[in-house]
Amino acid sequence: MNRLKVIIIASFLGVLYAYLSIYIIGIGAAIAIPANILTPVVEAYPTVAFATVDLITIGLPLIAASFVFLVAVRYFNSRNSYFPYLVLFVPFCIQHIYLFVIMGQLQDWVFTLGTVLPRYIAILGFAYYFAKRAVNQARAAFS
């Protein structure tokens, strides 16, 4: 498939993933975690406790959704390029940076970044690993 078609498909899938991520975040934020599970950890390390809950309730479903889109891009990416994978995640990154900027003034930036940043690091780290592995396997198959 020619490169322009792959980039168009990847950008369409990226926009779809960005919109789907808002839905997943809404569902993940609505999950109730019992207080007796979190109380001992919150008393000692509140940022770590909420970052862990955020990573499990929101990060893992976002990683699972990104896996589906990454496999779709891998199927169409016959040129073995990293660029379609980058195009896939650009709408997601732009949307979430925009949403973070328009949240307004936060009372505690360190707590907010400490709880949300591990989710994005895990998602982008998984995407980087998957893209690098897919491209290296495809290049090895063509060599």
Described by strand count, sense and barrel closure, the largest sheet is: none
Helix content: over 70%
From the alpha-carbon coordinates, what is the Rg to the nearest angstrom?
Answer: 18 Å
Indicate the multimeric state: single chain
Provide the succession of SSEs: HHHHH
Return the structural class.
mainly alpha
Q: How many H/I helical runs? A: 5
Low-confidence stretches: none
The total domain count is 1
Mean pLDDT: 89
Tally the beta strands: 0
What is the first-to-last residue Cα distance? 19 Å
Inertia-based shape: elongated
Write structural notes for this entry.
- By secondary structure, the chain is an all-alpha fold.
- It has one domain.
- It contains 5 helices and no strands.
- It has helices at 3-29, 35-44, 46-76, 83-101, 109-142.
- The longest helix is centred in the last third of the chain and has 34 residues, at 109-142.
